[in-house]
Amino acid sequence: MIEISRRPYAYRTSHRLDELEFVQPDGTQLKLLLKDLRRSELGPARRVKPRLVHNPRREVEAYRVLADANLGTPICHNSGKHWLLLEKVQGVELWQVGELATWVDVARWLAAFHDHFASKPPSSVALLDYDAPFFRLWPERARRKHPELRRVLSGYDRVIKLLISQRRTLIHGEFYASNILVAGSRIAPVDWEMAGMGPGVLDLAALLSGWGDSERTAIAAGYRDVSSEVLSAAQLHLALQWLGWSADWTPPPEHARDWLVEALAAAERLGL
After folding, report:
1. What pLDDT does 100 receive?
2. CA dihedral 94, 100, 102, 107 (to 10 degrees)
3. What is the CA radius of gyration of the chain?
4. Cα–Cα distance between 180 and 56 in angstroms, integer?
5. Digit-coded pLDDT (tens) for 45-55
6. Max CA pair span of the chain
7. What pLDDT, on a 0 to 100 scale, did the predictor assign at position 48?
8. For the segment 6-19, what is each residue's pLDDT rounded down to a tens digit?
């Protein structure tokens, strides 16, 4: 008889996440994660996560698309309309890894991931579309909270043109170090709630967040040649998206950067 235990997962970030442990009669153990994607199970994030980006089907679709790619992403053992039963990857979050070489390896993984889905683009209405209308959502939302952005945003059409001119592929959407597990040579990004089709440079910009210029250059070299102009456009968009996320929202510790300073710095690099 198989013994099953269930308990809340200590490291959940938004949606309800439970750890399931299956113990076979011979003592063999299997640990899985059960993720509830309903908005009602968002916890404190429910109050601030914009409805316009929440779709409980999106991550289910993302794992369906990832299943045959053989890229090391967590195995989805089963899923339903609003839930996922996922492999619990035995790894560490990338932000805990200090060796720059590992970050470069992640950038190489990201390039392979983007190449794969640029040549085999998935089709799903549940995935986000990172297109011009999506990029236009965030400047005004950010300006309401930070009127000092008004001058910067007057030239934002150029940023949108730069981003939509890039090759479209499947993107993670929140490719921050806290969402990337490293298990030896395996790279396993988790939390695909913002997955969609768009310019891959958005994922690269997220990966580079928080690093200084020399480190960013080294990590980006692992990806491929990306113009500084396009990368700055992506960095400006990410900063504005966080600033426009919610009127009374403050970033969780894993995203706690001065996004206003980052937005102004990216805008200055772009000459806005």
Report:
1. 96
2. 90
3. 19
4. 21
5. 666 678 888 89
6. 67
7. 64
8. 888 877 777 889 99
Q: Say how far apart CA 102 and CA 94 lie, in whole Å.
A: 8
The string of pLDDT tens digits covering residues 53-104 is 889 999 999 999 999 899 999 999 999 999 999 999 999 999 999 899 999 9
For residues 40 and 16, the answer to whether their CB atoms sit within 8 Å is: no
Phi-psi group of 75: left, alpha or beta (phi > 0 → left; psi -120 to 50 → alpha; rest → beta): beta
The three-state DSSP-derived secondary structure of the chain is CCEEEEEECCCCCCCEEEEEEEECCCCCEEEEEEEECCHHHCHHHHHCCCHHHCCHHHHHHHHHHHCCCCCCCCCEEEECCCEEEEECCCCEEHHHCCCHHHHHHHHHHHHHHHHHHHHCCCCCCCCEECCHHHHHHHHHHHHHHCHHHHHHHCCHHHHHHHHHCCCEEEECCCCCHHHEEEECCEEEECCCCCCEEEECHHHHHHHHCCCCHHHHHHHHHCCCCCCHHHHHHHHHHHHHHHHCCCCCCCCCHHHCCCHHHHHHHHHHHCCC
Cβ-based neighbours of 197, under 8 Å, separated by 6 or more: 121, 122, 127, 128, 129, 130, 168, 169, 170, 171
Q: What is the pLDDT of residue 254?
A: 54
What's the whole-model pTM score?
0.92
Name all domains of the chain by residue range, CATH numbers in brackets: 3-269 (3.90.1200.10)
Higher-scoring residue by pLDDT: 15, 193: 193
Amino acid identity of residue 120, one-letter, is K
Q: Which has more confidence, 10 or 229? A: 229
- Supply angle C-alpha 270, 198, 170, rounded to 5: 135
Evaluate if residue 106 carries a pLDDT over 60.
yes
